[in-house]
Design brief:
The protein is of the alpha+beta class and 352 residues long. The chain has ten helices and eight strands.
């Protein structure tokens, strides 16, 4: 009958001592490692037991997970603001989650990952709001008649404003101004323009010109004919460079300007004397054209009215009021009329 081999107790003890000494040397070296791997070795529970190469791999995976979450957050925000850098605290929690998952502790792993994603979301939102605040404060210091000044100030002026994207605020201000312009005749819906001509011909006017109301050539008022005038008995007929008729404006409707491919109002302008530059001034009703840049001037020079309307759009009527906005515009019209009456020659003579 064979007997089991005898284990040399001294030999087993020797291997145990060797293993302990080797482990001590390895852990001492890991404790001295710098960088994020070194911090993980020293800060994680049993961090000295994990190979450095494994921690490096887990750190890279943590960065990938954080970037993926940043991209997920960006899909819900149309400002496309650059996310903040991934912090060590976030990476550490994601590494801990991976280690817990590998050890079979799925509940602990899920809790750690949820905490890491919460930190990433918090830091991302803080970065977005700080960037929005800086951008809007800078715009609030620009020209007070500009589109950027309007939306920048409105985007700072109510509770929770930083939660709204810049593009959403811009769209609300754009919609507010367009709605108000279409709701009545206000200060800013009519404007004066100037051009210089030395020959009769077809002219494309600026995009925001809807229709010409009055015109003068070198200070002399001239007629403005609508499209029907060319076809009416006693009218001037079809205006061409060889059939100018009386000098003035003749409406040709809307056409695409070949110079920029934009649809604009087109007029035939007949000048009184060919070859001599004529200063043409015309008063025109304006139509709304969305602002292409923050530096463009608003059509309506009434911040309070536009703010009321924009807030109503943004908050679905909880803040701001359309009727209040129109009243502000009506008060502005009345005030301008009052000023014109005070300083009219008739009024000045009556005060003497």
């Amino acid at each position: 009958m064979e007997t089991a081999p005898q284990v040399d107790p001294y030999r087993a003890e020797a291997f145990t001592l060797l293993e302990r000494n080797i482990t001590a040397v390895v852990e001492r070296e890991r404790r001295l490692i710098t960088g994020e791997e070194g911090r993980l070795h020293n800060e994680l529970p049993d961090g000295l037991k994990f190979p450095t190469a494994r921690l490096t791999k887990l750190l890279n995976q943590a960065v990938s997970d954080a970037i993926a979450h940043h991209q997920f957050l960006q899909r819900g925000d149309d400002d496309l603001i650059s996310p903040p850098a991934v912090t060590f605290e976030q990476k550490k929690m994601l590494v801990e989650s991976s280690l817990a998952s590998a050890a079979g502790g799925m509940e602990q792993a899920n809790l750690l990952k949820a905490g890491a994603l919460e930190l990433i979301t918090r830091d991302y939102k803080a970065q977005v709001e700080a960037t929005r605040r800086d951008d809007r404060m800078a715009l609030a210091l620009t020209a007070p008649t500009s589109f950027g000044y309007y939306w920048g100030r409105i985007a700072l002026g109510f509770e929770g404003a930083l939660e709204f994207s810049n593009n959403l605020i811009k769209r609300a201000v754009t919609a507010a101004e367009e709605s108000l312009m279409n709701s009545g005749k206000w200060v800013g819906t009519v404007a004066e323009y100037t051009l210089s001509l030395s020959a009769s011909g077809e002219v494309f006017l600026p995009r925001e010109v809807d229709t010409v109301l009055f015109t003068s050539f070198d200070g002399d008022p001239r007629p403005v004919h609508d499209r029907y005038a060319e076809y009416m008995r006693g009218g001037g007929g079809i205006k061409t460079t060889s059939n100018v008729g009386r000098s003035g404006f003749s409406d040709l409707g809307h056409e695409v300007d070949p110079a920029d491919g934009k649809t604009k109002r087109k007029y035939f302008v007949g000048v009184p004397t060919e070859g001599i530059p004529t200063v043409v001034r015309y008063l025109a009703k304006r139509r709304f054209v969305p602002h292409a840049s923050d530096t463009e001037n608003m059509y309506l020079d009434n911040f309070a009215a536009v703010e009321q309307m924009a807030l109503s759009i943004l908050t679905q009527g909880k803040l701001g009021n359309f009727e209040a906005a129109k009243k502000l515009l009506a008060d502005q019209v009345a005030q301008n009329f009052f000023k014109s009456q005070i300083w009219s020659p008739r009024k000045i003579n009556s005060l003497r």
